[in-house]
Amino acid sequence: MNILRAFTLSSLRKNKKRTIVTIIAIILTAAMLTGVTTLATSFKDMFIRQAINSNGNYHIRYNYVPIESAKYLNSHTLVDKSFISNTLGYSELNINRTAEDFLKVVAYDDKGLELQPIKLIEGRLPQNSREIIIEQNLVDFLDIEIGQELSLKIGYKTFIEETEQTVISDIELQEYTFEVVGLTERNLYQVGYSLDFGAVTFFDEQLHLQDGHVEVSVLLNNPKNTIEKANKIASDVKLPTSQGFYGNYNYFLNRELLNWQGASVNQAFVYFTETAALIIMLLVVIGAVIVIYNSFAISISERKKQFGMLRSVGATAKQIKRTVYWEGFVLSLIGVPIGIISGIFGIFITLKVADSILQDIFTGAEHIYLVVSPFAVLAAIAFMVITIFLSTVIPARKAAKISPIDAIRLTTDITTSKKSRSNPIAKFLFGIEGDIALKNLKRNRKRYFATILSLFISIVLFI
Amino acid sequence: MEILRVENLSKHYGKGNTQVKALEDVSLSVKKGEFVAIIGPSGSGKSTLLHLIGGVDIPTEGKVYIDDTNIYNLNESSRAVFRRRQVGLVYQFYNLIPILNVKENITLPILLDGKKVQKDKLKEIVNTLGIADRMNYLPNQLSGGQQQRVSIGRALINNPALLLADEPTGNLDSKNSEEIINLLKMSNRKYKQTIIIITHDESIALQANRVISIEDGKIVKDEVLRK
Ligand SMILES: Nc1ncnc2c1ncn2[C@@H]1O[C@H](COP(=O)(O)OP(=O)(O)O)[C@@H](O)[C@H]1O
Ligand SMILES: [Mg+2]
Q1: How does pLDDT run across A58-85, given as a tens digit for each residue?
Q2: Is A259 part of any domain?
Q3: B93 touching A, CB under 8 A?
Q4: Are A88 and A164 members of one domain?
Q5: Do A33 and A95 sit in the same domain of this protein?
Q6: Min Cα–Cα distance to chain A from B104, Å
Q7: 3-state DSSP call for residue A147?
Q8: Structure pTM?
Q9: Which residue of A has its CA nearest to B98?
């Protein structure tokens, strides 16, 4: 091994206490950084699942698409996946709840059944247009079981002004008979936060077109710049134009999902989340740099003579500098992996606790799971590299600046050029030990300040 | 053959009233294989001269040629490399690296060059110095005399153009002093090693080929005792 590396390892071994303190600081920093990134990705994951569960798993939903155009949408280069659906309409249930009771029936093609967040409790997905799955909480109301038939009169909701009531209009009322093949959890993605119930059947091109049109839901390869892409896809596929929310085409966006996937239509939202995480990480880095820098500065000043001796036998300034960086590297090699693992473990525990609390408070709340993404870990490592570099760059320069002559003229390692004055009060109150302690405190005032500052920052971070 | 030439070398510390002229317009020339002793009262500038010759300090004025290279024309890092290849320094307080063992301390100048240590050469040196059985010891596990042998080994390992010793026996008892001087004399004879040694001890100075006396930063006497 390179002699200067051997030298570094020996000094690390020799100064066990400081080595351990530095490694602990590195571990804590890496743990906090990984904690922040992992927490962010875990929450993001939860919010994405929540968005999908409550709104559906799509980015753009094109309404009233001619059935011939559907397959062109699916094969567009910007599109990852797409599915076809059509709302058949609503059926009045007359189950005597306080609100109006409607069952919304939607037909999905096979890809839709696969992509939409359907949570089967029992049974299976529908395989043809005669099969249906319903919410489990309807079982009691309708007194129905899997395998039984369900006849529904399906039409459109209309609001009657005189009675101020919503009813299913008699016009175009169609009668369907389904076999119930599965029971699901509440279909939020289908009914939103209304009191309606949801049911899902299999899309059939012969039965379920509306004047030859369907809805096509699209997941983009990359959800960024959604509106631009939505318009481009529509114009490429030559969808009929009509006045829509976002321009000349009739579609809407799954804004909540887009927000959490970082393609916010409302850009400020993305920036806020990312900036908050970034600020916390920068604070961690600042605190860590102060602590780790100090440790290195002390380490260098204690070995001033040794560095000077190395210089006098012909070590170049560059070699000395590299030695200090290498010391940082070695300590990181031990501290960072431990820090990352303990950070992830810490978040794992935190989320377990948070999840059970959230589940207690909000029944049916989305579960939160630990998500360890390579990006989150890499981001933590990148910040760690910056931290170690910032902590060592000045000590490395200082070490390289020590001239051989300084070391030769230095007989001991501690310079005693400046004598600090005795404090008579301290001496009187605490005796000679108190006096010495106070002198030490004065000498290390900067270091104490740094330590206190960093402690303060970490406390603030924790709160 | 001239191996060292010092031209009008000066070193001043501070400015104005408090200025110290540690060295003032010193010129000298040393031939290969010479054993030169520098004597003079304390504070006369001996160490300053030696450090300037060794390239570890920076002169206020003047030039130092080692093997026809003006070492202060080199930049910092080239001078460091030059130093580790061409200059061996021995100090009164040994100045070994406390956390490296004897073998590492001796071979440091070679290892810093990223080169392989020649085993024969190392063996010969440590046998001559009588520290072959101490290779894995740390400096603080050795006596003063032994530590000084290690530092001489370090100075000799690269076959330097110059071996510079600043009161190498100043911290040793008379028996160890004599042995160290004998080692230096032997390397001077055996390897034609050029040596410049600072000493307080007249009896040591008288064993050299040539004695240079310094007072107040100037050479006041330069006599050749033997060829
Ligand atoms: N760093 C320095 N700053 C100021 N004066 C110095 C410094 N180093 C040496 N001197 C002064 O230079 C003079 C010569 O010192 P030095 O070469 O060490 O003498 P010697 O080795 O002959 O005892 C002394 O007066 C000493 O005080
Ligand atoms: Mg001296």
Answers
A1: 999 998 899 888 888 888 999 999 999 9
A2: no
A3: yes
A4: yes
A5: no
A6: 8
A7: coil
A8: 0.79
A9: A306
